[in-house]
Specification:
Elements lengths: L31 H20 L6 H14 L6 E3 L4 H6 L5 E3 L2 E6 L2 E7 L4 H5 L6 E5 L2 E2 L5 H8 L6 E7 L7 E6 L1 E3 L4 E8 L2 E6 L6 H14 L4 E5 L8 H9 L7 E6 L7 E4 L11 E5 L6 H11 L4 E4 L7 E7 L5 E10 L16 H10 L6 E2 L13 E3 L5 E3 L8 E2 L7 H8 L2 H21 L3 H7 L4 H13 L6 H6 L1 H26 L4 H7 L2 H7 L4
Parallel strand pairs: 11-12, 12-15, 15-16, 16-22
Antiparallel strand pairs: 1-18, 2-9, 3-4, 4-5, 5-6, 5-7, 7-8, 10-11, 13-14, 13-18, 17-18, 19-22, 20-21
Helix pairs in contact: 6-7, 7-8, 11-15, 12-15
């Protein structure tokens, strides 16, 4: 079972490594060709505005021209209208009320980047890669970012129905979602998963990420942590500086963490470790998957290149382009790719996009990608027959560039049967647990007190409870098959248990229970000997 987190905003701006400095575009260029092209564009705009048969919206013409200008550059350069800047800022601080998804509009269609961890979309089974084609029965094709946000956000407790098409499917399935307050913290969970082993789920790299991570590390250390699993699965990235500072927690001396190279020398940078922390010698494992991008890949790449810890899971997204915002006169922003970033060994993480037909295919290919064979990949033999350029880690292990970070141990996420997915989609878990807790909340509190560990070890739902859950699903006309439900029974019961735990212990209860059946996490728990060996920790 893959961790579905992702407390982070809903637009591709969060996948960029933007550095909020802002420049005027016309200060960058001064050659004659540039000036001639500006005049040419101005002439076309003037003729169209003055002579076109119908009245035209000049602002729309200009914005469409800007979008067209960026479309064929790369998948991550983007124009943000001034009215959307409030939403952009909101993603980095504070919270909002809505359905809790990160989305990207590709070819006029809303693509779910990820459901936000602990949010209502995750609760009903919305998944990365889903495409929202209708909202409350009306087509959602062609909506702008601001229109989507206006339709999906709303007061806590109100409902919205979205029509979803999943990759590989042609039919539309409706999900009814009850809006709620959406948390925007970076550290979604911080807990002791076992004696001496800490677990931190970091879901984005925003303004408060470094301070949240430091607090979590210090708190876990006080509880006896001397080994750490850092979960970056489905973390789409964020701020470059936050990635550097978080890497610095684990990398000693003044070792390189990341460097950037652009066409213009002023965009070339080197970022190194600067401070000394008590976490530089603890055995470390980082969990990644195909939803781990950008800043997540900076951290993972630096840890892997310095043999500082193990990378476990699936090959990451492959986003190694740096965007910088340029502020336009009306306070709109254009984020333009100004450099590529490289890991300490010299690897470029950006995967090839030159031969991809359009942005839609670029994003979808990640979810259709077949990863390499599971198992030990410390020598990265899974990639040795590829055309990717070869590099070496600090100890001389081969690693490859040009396509994300491939793990040292490849572990695929568990797959669920269609019936189990239908249960998620229908929101049956939430409905059942609400009814169950109305009757049993006091009993659970009295019996287990504040001991999450005691609850996780000793609480279980009865066969009667399970049958009641299936009965409710049938009443709600959820399509399920008996043999599929039997196969996934342990997952279903554990997820119900996690819902109950979250009702009392919030996110900590949710994670502590679901991680017990997370095959990637469970494998990671067995690899600390290897993590200690590879990092040469005595």
């Amino acid at each position: 079972m893959n961790k579905k987190g992702l407390s982070i905003s809903l637009m591709i701006v969060l996948v960029t490594l933007g550095i909020f400095l802002g420049f005027r575009i016309n200060n960058i260029f001064s050659n004659n060709d540039y000036q001639e092209n500006i005049k040419k564009f101005n002439d076309v705009l003037t003729y169209t505005t003055k002579y076109y048969v119908d009245k035209v919206d000049t602002n729309k013409l200009v914005e469409d021209a800007i979008k067209g200008m960026l479309k064929d550059l790369d998948p991550h350069s983007v124009y943000i209208p001034a009215k959307e800047q409030k939403e952009v800022s909101e993603e980095f601080i504070g919270n909002f009320e809505g359905i809790g998804v990160e989305f990207q509009i590709v070819n006029d269609t809303i693509n779910v980047v990820s459901p936000i961890s602990g949010g209502p979309s995750e609760a009903v089974g919305i998944s990365s890669g889903d495409r929202i084609v209708s909202i409350n029965g009306k087509s959602a094709i062609g909506l702008t970012n601001s229109q989507v946000i206006a339709k999906l956000r709303g007061q806590k407790g109100t409902k919205v129905t979205v029509g979803i098409i999943r990759p590989g499917n042609k039919f539309i399935t409706d999900f009814t979602i009850t809006r709620d307050k959406i948390p925007l913290h970076s550290v979604d969970a911080s807990l002791m998963i076992k004696d001496q082993i800490g677990y931190i789920s970091l879901t984005r790299f925003a303004e408060t990420s470094t301070s949240e991570m430091l607090n979590a590390l210090n708190n876990l250390t006080k509880k006896g942590m001397n080994k750490l699993i850092l979960d970056l699965r489905n973390n789409p990235g964020g701020l470059l500086q936050q990635a550097v500072q978080i890497s610095d927690f684990f990398i000693d001396d003044s070792k390189m963490i990341v460097y950037t190279r652009g066409r213009r020398k002023e965009f070339d940078e080197e970022r190194r470790a600067e401070s000394t922390y008590p976490f530089e010698k603890i055995p470390l494992i980082i969990l990644v998957n195909r939803g781990s991008a950008s800043a997540s890949e900076i951290v993972s790449g630096a840890i892997q290149d310095w043999d500082r810890g193990l990378i476990v899971g699936e090959t990451t997204f492959g986003k190694g382009l740096v965007q910088r915002p340029f502020i336009l006169p009306d306070n709109s922003v254009v984020r333009i790719t100004i450099a590529r970033y490289y890991t300490p060994s010299g690897r470029e993480i950006q995967r090839d996009y030159k031969n991809v037909k359009n942005a839609k295919d670029y994003y979808e290919e990640v979810y259709k990608r077949k990863d390499k064979k599971e198992g030990n990949n410390l020598e990265h033999s899974a990639e040795e027959d590829s055309t990717k350029p070869k590099f070496t880690t600090h100890s001389g292990r081969p690693v490859y560039g040009g396509g994300g970070i491939t793990p040292d141990y490849i572990i695929h996420a568990s797959k669920l049967n269609e019936s189990t997915t239908n249960l998620l989609r229908g929101g049956i878990y939430f409905q059942f647990v609400r009814n169950y807790m109305e009757k049993n909340h006091k009993m659970i509190k009295d019996k287990y007190g504040n001991s999450l560990k005691n609850f996780a070890k000793n609480f279980s739902l009865s066969d009667s409870d399970f049958n009641s859950f299936i009965k409710l699903a049938k009443q709600k006309k959820i399509i399920i098959k008996k043999e599929e439900i039997a196969k996934d029974k342990n997952y279903i019961l554990t997820r119900l248990k996690a819902y109950i735990a979250r009702d009392i212990w919030k996110n900590k209860g949710w994670y502590y229970n679901l991680l017990q059946i997370d095959n990637q996490l469970q494998k990671a728990l067995t690899l600390f000997g290897e993590a200690q060996k590879i990092s040469n920790i005595k």
